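Project outcomes to date are best conveyed with an example. Our students and postdoctoral researchers have been running inverse folding experiments weekly, and each run begins with a structure described purely in tokens. The record below, which covers 191 residues, was selected by the lab manager from last quarter's runs and is presented without edits.
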């Protein structure tokens, strides 16, 4: 069902249902990235504002949930970047095997760049390409931990792998993403 084929009433009802159905899960997701509840609430409001404003541009109703989570992650990452400004080239890789890297630790700061929304889309497209290219075991643990918010313990129970193995796989996935994103980011910024 395409967004543009809905009547105004259907559109408003769908927006309302979507907000109600996703508020709790999105807020929980956002809280993983911010310390204060007020910040999480503000980000959630921004996400739903963008949803209402951009509703007609979402290509299909099936894409709404992933769109909401992508916008929430972008907003949370922007919030994180405001607190801790770094350029992509200044990021260092933590050598501790026990402490897994997180995706937001390797995303470049796009806040001061022209066309930052377009750049974010390009970065997310590159992340999807890199995920498709990496070994399945690494991709699976990365997506389950980052996007599905599963703990390493939950993933271990599901797969039968040890938590340390899963942490190591996620670390390798992050390193692959970091290297691929650094190349893409440098190409985009230096062009």
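After processing, the design step wrote out the following sequence:
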């Amino acid at each position: 069902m395409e967004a543009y084929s809905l009547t105004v009433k259907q559109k408003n009802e769908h927006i309302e249902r979507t907000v109600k159905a996703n508020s709790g899960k999105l807020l929980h997701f956002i809280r993983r990235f911010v310390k204060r509840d007020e910040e999480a609430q503000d980000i959630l409001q921004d996400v739903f504002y963008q949803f209402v404003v951009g509703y007609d541009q979402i290509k299909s109703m099936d894409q709404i949930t992933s769109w909401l989570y992508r916008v929430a992650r972008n907003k949370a990452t922007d919030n994180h970047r405001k607190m801790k400004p770094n350029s992509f080239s200044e990021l260092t890789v933590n050598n501790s095997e026990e402490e897994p890297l997180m995706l937001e630790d390797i995303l470049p700061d796009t806040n001061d760049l022209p066309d930052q929304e377009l750049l974010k889309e390009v970065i997310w497209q590159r992340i999807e390409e890199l995920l498709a290219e990496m070994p399945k075991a690494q991709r699976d643990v990365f997506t389950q931990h980052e996007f599905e918010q599963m703990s390493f313990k939950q993933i271990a129970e599901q797969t039968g792998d040890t938590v340390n193995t899963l942490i190591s796989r996620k670390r390798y996935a992050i390193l692959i993403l970091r290297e691929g994103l650094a190349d893409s980011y440098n190409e985009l910024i230096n062009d």
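The chain is about 65% helix and 0% strand. Residues 84-100 have pLDDT under 50 and may be disordered. The training component of this project remains on track.
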